Amino acid sequence: AQKVTQAQTEISVVEKEDVTLDCVYETRDTTYYLFWYKQPPSGELVFLIRRNSFDEQNEISGRYSWNFQKSTSSFNFTITASQVVDSAVYFCALSEMLRAGNNRKLIWGLGTSLAVNP
Amino acid sequence: KAGVTQTPRYLIKTRGQQVTLSCSPISGHRSVSWYQQTPGQGLQFLFEYFSETQRNKGNFPGRFSGRQFSNSRSEMNVSTLELGDSALYLCASSLDRFSYEQYFGPGTRLTVT
Lengths: 118, 113
What we know:
The complex is a heterodimer.
Chain A: E1 3-5, E2 10-14, E3 19-21, E4 24-26, E5 32-39, E6 46-52, E7 59-61, E8 64-69, E9 74-79, E10 88-96, E11 107-108, E12 112-117
Parallel strand pairs in A: 2-12
Antiparallel strand pairs in A: 1-4, 3-9, 5-6, 5-10, 7-8, 8-9, 10-11, 10-12
Chain B: E1 5-7, E2 10-13, E3 19-24, E4 31-38, E5 42-50, E6 53-57, E7 64-68, E8 74-78, E9 87-94, E10 103-104, E11 108-112
Parallel strand pairs in B: 2-11
Antiparallel strand pairs in B: 1-3, 3-8, 4-5, 4-9, 5-6, 7-8, 9-10, 9-11
């Protein structure tokens, strides 16, 4: 069965600190996608990144970076120099590769609530 | 381009009633998925519609149903409401069935008393 675990329920940091959000997944599929979404207080989920199981290159986008390690089934997310606007709940999710007949459904972690204090 | 819109944003119902939630996807998007979000269970997939047909379904009882119209707008219905149905219901739209990018609406907060 597929499963996503975000062990950190809540994290609180002071502005400008770096913070890493952990994500560990389980799947028997050899091909799959991993996602990170951000949910600010307004409630709307915002897509941050998608990574396929064939690509283990780390990715950096501004202050955000992602570390995908297939050997440990982890897909961690780091925010460098955090800002108050980063305060939100962050979700990691897993999806099997979409092919004819496949179920698109995302398997979600329970989320990590990040509070960045001024 | 306008984003995904969901109406109403907030809803209060009593046990036993039924409710209909609406979702308008991004213009040109033909696939709509619904998710239920609760503090205890997190986000759970309800169902997905494409071309007016339900393509996939999560593990929810038959009280949860949905439909999609020819303009891709979708509605979900919950009959005989239970207290446990209190949740944030999120709608996500995608260009088609095989597009990984899903764009979420702000959700409908349903409270059952």
